[in-house]
Amino acid sequence: MNTKAKGYLLGAVAAATYGMNPLFALPLYKAGMDPDSVLFFRYLFAIPLLGTMLKARGRDFKLHRREIVPLVLLGLLVALSSLSLFLSYNYMDAGIASTLLFVYPIFVALIMAFGFREKLSPQTALCILLALAGIGLLFKGSDGSTLNITGTVLVMVSALSYAIYIVGVNRPVLKSVATLKVTFYVLLFGLLLYVVRLDFGMAVHVPDKWYLWGNLLALAVFPTAISFLCTTSAIQYIGSTPTAILGALEPVTAVFFGVMIFGETLTLRICCGILLIIIAVSLIVAGNRVAAYIVRFRKLFPRLPLKKAGRKGSDSPDRQSRE
User: What per-residue confidence (pLDDT) applies to 292?
Assistant: First the structure.
């Protein structure tokens, strides 16, 4: 397999595994677990996993004082994004929720346009209209029923907080911090939200069956470690923009599992809505700097030397040294 094919394969695996959240979360809901408890254990299992990766890469856990407050805030943002998304599964099909979440790159573009005065291009405006059209198709079903308002608001809160995090993690105060270390502390500080919401651990729902523990561990491994590791490798082979565009497989994976395993409805209207959102987000990622922002969030490992250096679309040397 040549280098480019390997990169696209890894990018596809990264996106597909990232879209597996509903596959492992919904059985836990069915067993009586609440979203806070599910996410509490997901973060709890992921933290030592990332800590081990951090030590394996020869990194330390030291932080400068000026980095602590931004990381606490970013951790709470990520925890809020996770919580609102997992709460939305109680109000709508998980596949639809994952598709709606996929509009977060559009929020990134809007934040950069209105918050940091980046030019809002005609292409970006067109992509926003396409995404809104896609959401409109998803919002009203073929039987005339509409999506649950609470669920829709929760997903939009998740996408917006996710986008704010992506922009925030790219600010100068954290630019010199290795991404793996950032992610470790973001999850560590984000865990605090669930600890508080669960009465400091007193209200946590502990699984009583072994296979439920397997689901919790899978949440920490597949959508977290494997997805991020494959993302990093894909970036090395094909660059940041193609890797970010391959993220379109995330909602596709969620929809696939929702329909095939959980019996969720898939109509022509829903298919058209999903397609419009995927096209809009892919165009906006390809057309501006959004891909670079998304990649900074997703990368966990330093760039490894490849036999063929200097490929088009790769990250700059100064960025590589920070990872």
Answer: 66
Q: Give the Cα separation of 132 and 38 in Å (integer).
A: 31
Higher pLDDT: 108 or 319? It is 108
The pLDDT value recorded for residue 171 is: 79
The pLDDT tens digits of the residues spanning 32-57 come to 999 999 999 999 998 998 888 888 88
Nearest Cα to 111, choosing from 279, 298, 247, 290? 290
Average pLDDT in the chain? 81
From CA 231, how far away is CA 212, in angstroms rounded? 27
C-alpha–C-alpha distance, residues 46 and 91, integer Å: 27
HEC sequence for the chain: CCHHHHHHHHHHHHHHHHCCHHHHHHHHHHCCCCHHHHHHHHHHHHHHHHHHHHHHCCCCCCCCHHHHHHHHHHHHHHHHHHHHHHHHCCCCCHHHHHHHHCCHHHHHHHHHHHHCCCCCCHHHHHHHHHHHHHHHHHHECCCCCECCHHHHHHHHHHHHHHHHHHHHHCCHHHCCCCHHHHHHHHHHHHHHHHHHHCCCCCCCCCCCCHHHHHHHHHHHHHHHHHHHHHHHHHHHHHCHHHHHHHHHHHHHHHHHHHHHCCCCCCCHHHHHHHHHHHHHHHHHHHHCCHHHHHHHHHCCCCCCCCCCCCCCCCCCHHHHHHC
Q: Are 313 and 239 contacting, i.e. CB atoms less than 8 angstroms apart?
A: yes
